[in-house]
Design goal:
With 125 residues, this protein is mostly loops. It has one helix and five strands.
Length: 125
C-alpha cells in the first residue's frame, strides 16, 4: 500500500474498486482523496497500548492529528464530540432526547500532542 495521506487524516490502508487509495474506516462516510503529506518532523505517534514512535506514513493505520488535520478541526476541545453534533439539525437537538456529554458551544480541539497508529499489540487477526 502506498504511503498516501487522505483527506480523512488517515494513511491509505486499502484501495477502492478503481484501484485508488482508500480508507477502510471512512469509506462511505465521505468522499476520499489524497492530500499533500504534512511535515511529520518532530511529531510522535502513539498506539492505544501507549507505545510511542516517530510519526511516519509507513506506520500501520496511521492517522495524522497535527495542524489543520480533520481531527484538530472537527473534534470539540470541550466535549470531544464531532462538530456535526453541535448543530441545530442534529438528532439530539430536535428530539426530547438529550446527550449530556455534548457541550453547547463547539470549539475546535486544535493540534493534538500525538498522531495515532497501531503497533500490533493486540494481534493482526
Amino acid at each position: 500500500m502506498p504511503n498516501v495521506l487522505l483527506n480523512c487524516g488517515c494513511r491509505a490502508n486499502s484501495i477502492n474498486q478503481n484501484r485508488d487509495p482508500s480508507c477502510t474506516t471512512h469509506v462511505g462516510l465521505m468522499e476520499l482523496h489524497p492530500v499533500e503529506s504534512p511535515n511529520l518532523k518532530n511529531r510522535k505517534a502513539k498506539c492505544q497500548c501507549g507505545k510511542t514512535v516517530d510519526s511516519s506514513l509507513s506506520l500501520a493505520f496511521f492517522k495524522f492529528r497535527g495542524e489543520n488535520s480533520p481531527d484538530s478541526i472537527n473534534h470539540c476541545k470541550n466535549c470531544g464530540f464531532y462538530k456535526s453534533v453541535h448543530t441545530a439539525d442534529n438528532f439530539y437537538q430536535n428530539t426530547s432526547m438529550v446527550n449530556p456529554h455534548i457541550c453547547k458551544n463547539f470549539v475546535p480541539h486544535g493540534i493534538y500532542d500525538y498522531d495515532i497508529y497501531y503497533c500490533g499489540c493486540r494481534g493482526w487477526d
